[in-house]
Fold this protein.
Amino acid sequence: MITQLSIRHFKAIASATIPLGPITVLVGPNDSGKSTILQALMALSRCGDPAQFSPEQLLECSPSVAARHGDKSVDIEFTVDGVTTLDFDGKRHSYRYLVAVSPQRDVFSKERILWDDRQILESEPGNLIYGGNSISGQRANSTELSLQSRASSAVPASAIERSVNAIANDLSATMLRLDARAIALPAPLDAPVRPDGYGVVGIVDEWLTSGVDDERIERVNEILRRLSPHVAKMATKKHTPSGGKELYFALRTGAIPASQMSDGVVVAAALALISLKSAGQRMLIEEPENGLHPRQLRIVADTIRMIADTQGAQIILTTHSPLLLNHFTAEEVVLVTRDQSGVHVQRMSDAKGLDELASEMALGELWYNIGDSNLARPA
């Protein structure tokens, strides 16, 4: 689990450190930097996949980046604590990973892995240092021991190489902005799942027909039954006009298409399906309240908590909904505000006078009535 994310010179963020937990809810005004934090996490995710990522994508080919930050490099760093990815001696350790890109050259200017503050990999232009010794005189973007080129067989298998591969896996994330209407649409079975949830019917159909995924589909059904006792299980049916398939829910009274089901249950099903399909990847969810009736928000919040508790997936979401916020704790909520000096980040639990205020009103009500800027004052 990523416990801390540090960002420098990325889009609107000059410098910010964001505390993260199993569930992190980012709240704040529009254009405060919440979505930028999710985009930074997605940029890290692409660092582990050379087919998806390039320095230009980190800079987003934006000339304003260099102008805004004075030609400084873009740095994104995360800290992972309490995992055994770099378990060389049978003990639990933390590690940090840093990637930096120079806007002047659109190339990686630095890649570094530190294990309990001991540097085990550093890659810079023209040099790759491992254990304090140079093992390659090639340019950094063509060396073989880095997240950008980890798949090469030119480097012999080693504990460090395995750790680099594991870190690349730790970086993986899925970005979602779910829409119940898109989830309910008929889709070809080979359609990729979109961020809005279109295509999840293919996951259900694959699991139902393969005969080897009964456990996973039953786990999703169990989540749905806990949220809505009327739901027995999910099913798919052929949609003749489109040639694809459509998601159905079997109720006690019969099966109905997802388009006629509660939006909250449909979104909950998509969350659970995508999480299981992604094998515990980090889930980045933008405004899950969109399009949902306020009474449906409890279903979504409960699903998020069940996924985090039972599947070990780290979930980071943004919201503008006080009612959704009521279902989380102050320790899980991070305030993101922005003024002339830049973007500021703070746990809501560190807000001045929070304990007294929290005894008088629910968390979402408190946030709505007190306001972001007033809460964003350390105790």
Notes: The two ends are 27 Å apart (CA to CA). The longest helix spans residues 263-277.
